[in-house]
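Lab manual, section 2.4: Encoding a predicted structure.

Procedure: take the sequence of the chain (492 residues), apply the prediction step described in section 2.3, and record the output as structure tokens. A sample record is shown.
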Amino acid sequence: EHEDTGLLLQPLLEGQNYGAAAADGKQCPSVSVSRNSPAKRDYLVVAVLCFGNLINFIDWFIVPGILLDIQKYFRVSDGKTGLLQTVFTLCYMLAAPIFGYLGDRYNRKIILGAGIFFWSGVTLGSSFITESHYRIFVLSRGLVGIGSASYSTIAPTIIADLFEEGKRTTVLSIFYIFIPVGSGCGYMLAAGMAKSTGDWHWAFRVTPCMGGLALLLLILLIPHRIQRKTAAHRALSISGMIQRADEKPDVHRTAKTTWCQDVGSLAKNYSFVCSSLGLTAMAFVTGALGMWMPLFLYRAQVVQGIVPPCLQESCNSSNSLIFGGITIGTGILGIIAGAEAARRLRKINNKADPLICATSMFISALCLYIALMVAQMNILSTFIFIAFGELFLSVNWAVVTDILLYVVTPRRQSTAIALQILVSHLLGDAGSPYLIGVISNAIQAKNIPSLQWSFRSMQYSFIICAFVGVFGGGFFLLTCFYIEEDRKEAQR
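Recorded output:
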């Protein structure tokens, strides 16, 4: 069922005061506002979306949290183990443009609900796969990625439709805080369930219950239709003029543009292109770290003699718990710091957002490189520099999304987010976990098998992440040259 984008009068007559303030900050006298403010309902919608985002990213990082157990259970090498996250991400990114197309044209609540139901069911089913069916387990992770794509593509556009630009940055920051929180909870939930039950399969039986609750809240609390903001809506809010019902706006004509036309228009938006490439570098680094870092820390501890090699059925999961805690803490702090820095610096520099992203990427790359170099000597220093590296990576999440939302016209935002997801994952975290695993295998194959080379192979593989981070910072610097012009074009 199509969401109604043709009647500009509807949100005004129903009291949905989206952007009903004039440019000078005063309320337009010709616009009547209902006494029942929609603010509470809007924040309730955001709360439900944040809960769904939490579950989404818990599911993403259950596998890395118990990676050593899964590797031992299925008896697979580093390369085949990395395939788990690569297949997940490939399916996620390939499904994203489809959901972007559907999200721009059909009812977003139905798409969100179907995605939650699908990925929760597949996650539950994957917990019953036996050790002789590794390929089916890999396939199940790909199907979970398809369900996740529906959520990540559409949920931010709903937030964009509910809030004006200044408040939108804050709300998006809250929404994106649940990326690191969910990721960290994924590590901790997986490790905790494996430790408490002695069976890693139970880690995949918790989030389906949470998904069922999210689906119920989605059905009960989110309106069936959420009015889309268009350029015409913004023109109304600025001028204070209500369009006559018999005057047909140009929305119908623009709604009929093809997906290829939308992509062609976005390809000419250099701010969108450069910031998406910067996000791709972020995704490459975070994908590799998220998949392999707990295992890398374990191998570093084995080499230092801090822990013995794992010969038991259930391995030591303390690194997953610690890394999960670091991910949560640095993620929350980084996203809040990034949003606050953007809010303050925008007042003095129109290019503040890409400059913040570039600086944080350069610092993060340096911290990760130092963490890798000191891993064999001092594990505490490794944890500290990893924390700083993740902190500066997290600064960018909400800022990059906000860049997209103000340099892309509203009716192309779902398509733009889907395209950004496709590119950033195709060239980023779709390949980085598998690439790190393959390089590690190649290094081990050229040397005598030992605990030392097991560690060094992963250490040398990870160095590529530091260099990719530097390239990401360079792309954000390029964004500075185009962002002002593209922002003005989107506002027009």
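Check your result against the sample. Residues 1-36, 231-255 have pLDDT under 50 and may be disordered.
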